[in-house]
From TrEMBL:
It comes from Dethiosulfovibrio peptidovorans DSM 11002. SUPFAM superfamilies: Actin-like ATPase domain. This is Tfp pilus assembly protein ATPase PilM-like protein. It comes from the Bacteria. InterPro entries: ATPase_NBD (IPR043129), FtsA/MreB (IPR050696).
Length: 314
């Protein structure tokens, strides 16, 4: 799901993620036998451009991307751009059973019934949700991502003017879900993708490789949580999200947590989740999920940028 996209190269792919601590950039090359890292870069901000998972200083993001371009000698591949998750509204919308194109037409004409602005004011896209038996099969369920044009259009035009060959744009949590849910299509149960970042908690509900629900939960501004406070917050959010999903989608059995994000808290969070819930808890490495060779030793918050670079592979 992308807010817009255009045709891209078949052999080389690039993702650029605007994250809380800086800009992540990844180039992948595909051959007949493997998928390999061609380039991986990180550029930090001179001051905070992203706060609580929202872009608050576009000029600083432009500066950091310009520094990246100078470092790599310009962009050799079309770039899939990831923007902070809370800058995009993601909602679940349903209509009477119809094909995807008809559903998108219905969404266009009913857009302002689901979002606080008209479709003409938005960049948006939608995907059909796959549900297990027991879901509302007489309805078509969509997950819709939308952002108001005036908030992002000037920023995108600035990047293009500076020589960034943008091919698509999507929220970071959508890209992260793609990176982490790889291979889940063989399982007939629901799962939670949980990413713990510096300033937010990303929680996504999946069934097979379909994303049913996205939640971006910011942490209190300028506060430091203890490990116990963080664990309590994670448990509370999982409980609330699980209860909501079970009322929204019948037949969903959540039995697995796929954990990514901050390496320093994983061990404690895994132990706490296994104590609180009857879930299996798996720590996910997106590089291994996608079979990417040449992954960096210090990958940082790589989930998003891997998902961006890999978005044209599925």
């Amino acid at each position: 799901m992308a807010l817009w996209n255009r045709k891209k190269s078949k052999d080389g792919f690039a993702g650029l993620a605007i994250m809380s601590n800086g800009i992540y950039y990844l180039e992948l090359l595909r051959s007949d036998t493997d998928l390999a890292v061609n380039r991986y870069e990180f550029v930090s901000y001179s001051h905070g451009a992203v706060k609580q998972d929202s872009l608050v200083d576009q000029e600083e993001a432009v500066r950091a991307i310009g520094e990246l371009s100078d470092r790599i000698g310009g962009f050799g591949f079309d770039v899939a751009l990831g923007i902070p998750s809370r800058d995009v509204m993601i909602k679940n919308v349903e209509f009477p059973d119809m094909d995807l194109e008809m559903a998108k037409d219905a969404l266009h004409w009913n857009f302002d019934k689901n979002f606080p602005y008209d479709a003409s004011e938005a960049l948006y896209d939608a995907d059909v949700i796959e549900l297990p038996d027991g879901g509302k099969q007489d309805r078509v369920h969509l997950v819709v991502a939308a952002v108001r044009r005036f908030k992002i259009q000037g920023f995108l035009e600035r990047l293009r003017g500076d020589g960034v060959p943008l091919s698509s744009m999507e929220p970071n949590n959508v890209a992260a879900f793609r990176a982490i849910s790889r291979g889940m299509s063989i399982y007939d149960h629901g799962y939670i993708v949980l990413i713990i970042a510096a300033e937010s908690l990303q929680m996504m509900i999946g069934y097979r490789e379909s994303s049913l629900l996205f939640r971006s939960v910011p942490f209190p501004s300028d506060s430091v949580m203890s490990m116990e406070e963080l664990s309590n917050r994670v448990v509370s959010e999982i409980q609330a999200t699980g209860n909501y999903v079970r009322t929204l989608f019948r037949g969903i059995n959540l039995s697995t947590v796929l954990l990514a994000g901050d390496v320093s808290v994983r061990e404690h969070i895994v132990d706490r989740l296994k104590t609180e819930f009857d879930f299996s808890v798996d720590i996910v490495d997106p590089w291994l999920r996608w079979g990417i060779t040449g992954a960096p030793d210090e990958a940082g918050e790589a989930d998003v940028v891997v998902g961006l670079a890999a978005r044209n592979l599925i």
